[in-house]
Write a structure and sequence with these properties.
This protein is mainly α. The chain has 14 helices and 10 strands. It is globular, with a radius of gyration of 20 Å.
Length: 433
């Protein structure tokens, strides 16, 4: 089996580099033939873990493209594509964005409200510096990075310190997470540590970023964790964030405790499901302390989220007539129960799972899950080693597009973390607990 894991790593590298283009890393070899902000930055974890000069060049081109097409207000484009590329995912556009034939990047506006592009862009810049130590590139990008953060600050509409996110406005772009969303706010906390470290490297003032990091770290735990591990300071809430009094009292009374962070807290409303990716990122980016980390990982095993393959994206799934069900879940037959964002299995999330196990010191379990992730990526709709986009949450059968960049990249990152015995980049050596 070890030989198969090594083969899978080699195959993943080949497919990932093949998805490089003149403007950066494209989403897959079949569809999503654009440089997606979130996808390309997540894929940077794998590209730079490869220790490949070509991989570094591709990630840098992605950063340059996103920076080049940043809006005047600081918004990082959701994706930048080429009008000449046929893309079967662009059903609404007839397979192409436009009928132009010249090489001219096209800025997508179909999902321009998504906030995680800016978040991943800053993390992608930071990770690039961690691995390459290219301070000149950071200096060249610094104004763009600060501008991206400023745009994010304006997404905190009530100035509570956390982002308020419209539903379907992050990686789960056909899903009803909303307002103070776990996934986005975990990244928002991490971004401020990234900003602090980059500012120090540039000899720029860093105290304000450190102060904001600690403030947001406290608030996300206070708002989205339910249980004795994070007792609520009601006096502070009444004094500082009175709008949190009703929802926090509500979840403390009704839920009492949960072994995971809630997926979102809205105005007098909340979600009570296990958002796998948000919770894994809370481990990787030091939001969850050791006690919470153990509870999260134990719950994944108890609930069988890795029972078919690593790892199902949601538990429990959302069924029609429930409050978080939306008719748009039916779009392209995607978000039915156990499909796509609604409990589908995503290999890139499996890569984060392996990394989180390494972070927790569970190396033998991480090796086992890497083997199971290998088996998943081997499965294909037409041939073996497709590194498919996503799989059915009950049958484990591939249902997405083949040659998916973040399926390959996060396999490489997971492999590298297991091989090294610690997280690549986000390590104690670099100031991550």
């Amino acid at each position: 089996m070890q030989d198969e894991i090594k083969f899978a790593r080699k195959r993943a590298e080949e497919l990932l580099l093949k998805n490089g283009s003149e403007i950066g890393l494209l989403g897959s070899s079949q569809a999503y033939r654009q440089v997606w902000a979130r996808d390309s930055m997540i894929c940077g974890l794998g590209l730079l873990a490869m220790d490949s000069e070509e991989g570094r060049k591709i990630h840098r081109r992605s950063l340059e493209t996103l920076r080049k097409y940043q809006s005047k207000l600081g918004k990082i484009p959701h994706n930048v594509g080429l009008p000449t590329e046929f893309d079967p995912a662009l059903i609404a556009y007839g397979g192409k964005f436009t009928e132009e034939t010249e090489f001219k990047p096209y800025i997508d506006t179909a999902h321009e409200g998504c906030v995680d592009g800016n978040l991943w862009y800053i993390i992608g810049q930071y990770y690039n510096y961690l691995i390459t130590k290219d301070l000149d590139f950071v200096r060249e990008s610094w104004e763009s990075i600060k501008k991206a953060l400023l745009w994010l600050e304006y997404q905190d509409s009530n100035e509570c310190g956390l982002l308020e996110v419209h539903e379907a406005m992050d990686w789960a772009d056909l899903f009803a997470n909303r307002y103070n969303v776990l996934f986005d706010n975990v990244l928002y906390v991490a971004v401020h540590k990234c900003m602090c470290d980059l500012a120090k490297a540039l000899n720029e003032p860093s105290d304000k970023y450190d102060k904001l990091y600690k403030d947001k770290h406290k608030k996300i735990n206070m708002l989205l964790w339910v249980g004795v591990e994070e007792p609520k300071d009601k006096e502070w809430i009444i004094r500082e964030r009175k709008e949190w009094l009703y929802p926090t009292t509500l979840v403390d009374t009704l839920l009492v405790q949960r072994p995971y962070y809630l997926p979102y807290m809205a105005f007098r409303d909340y979600g009570d499901r296990f958002d796998t990716l948000g919770n894994l990122l809370a481990i990787i980016f030091d939001i969850a302390d050791e006690t919470k980390m153990e509870k999260i990982l134990e719950y994944i095993r108890q609930a069988g989220l890795d029972a078919v393959y690593p790892l199902r994206s949601l538990h429990p799934v959302i069924n029609p007539q429930e409050k978080d069900w939306r008719d748009y879940y039916l779009l392209r037959n995607l978000n039915l129960p156990y499909q796509y964002h609604n409990g589908g299995i995503w290999p890139f999330i499996g890569g984060f799972y392996v990394a989180a196990l390494v972070k927790a010191g569970k190396l033998e379990e991480a090796k086992l899950q890497l083997k199971r992730l290998t088996d998943l990526n081997k499965k294909g709709r037409k041939e073996e080693w497709e590194f498919n986009e996503w799989f059915h949450g009950q049958t484990g059968e591939p249902m997405g597009y083949a040659g998916q960049s973040w399926s390959t990249a996060m396999y490489i990152y997971a492999y590298s973390c297991v091989e090294k015995g610690e997280l690549v980049g986000f390590s104690r050596e670099n100031g991550w607990v």
